[in-house]
Amino acid sequence: AKERGDAGRPDAVLFVVGSKGCGKTTLVNRLLYPDKTETPKPTEGMEYNYARRTHATNIDRKDVAHVWEIAGSRQFADEVTEQDNVFLGARQVTTAVVCICVDLAKPTEAMRTAEYWLARIHARCEKTFEKLSARGSRLPEQLRKRSERVFSSNAPDGSHPDTSIRHSGVTVCIVATKHDATRRTDPERMKVLTRALRYLAHVNAAGLFFLGGFGKDSSSSSSSSM
Known about the structure:
The protein is of the alpha/beta class. It has 6 helices and 7 strands; from the N terminus they run βαββαβααβααββ.
């Protein structure tokens, strides 16, 4: 696929990351192939997909999204996220979205996974932004201000930014999977985990979504956002 879209705008880039068996491949398949029913094979390393769609208002224009799924060991993730030509480099940060998948069936691992990937995102963005700023680019400032505007518009008073929030400059979503399977088994533990994830998402300027229907025998999905 081309580096840039038909209108000269960078193509969208989606990174789907998280721990093993948390539903990353299932999520990607539901985004790209909603009619696909077979159980996906576990991903090892990195897997690439892309989607090409006709623009909503311009039938002569094609919008392209590059989808990267990162799986495997923590060591592999460390190596991948240090490569600016692979993860959140200068050509990607403008349109990048990172989805951090966490498994609610493993509460302790869920928090560690979210914290690890949030740290990797901030570290990679800081390095990329340093390089851009050294060239005289104002893009880092613009991306962080964009994030601040989004969170200010959603704040209760709608105007005063929360100085405790750390803005990476890219769009980040924490996707908590297997919500339907866990909320019935231990509601008190789920309540504590939900609050912890909400706090972690808030202070890192990330969205938080809960998804169900990721079990082996599940034929439907449910979702909610916070």
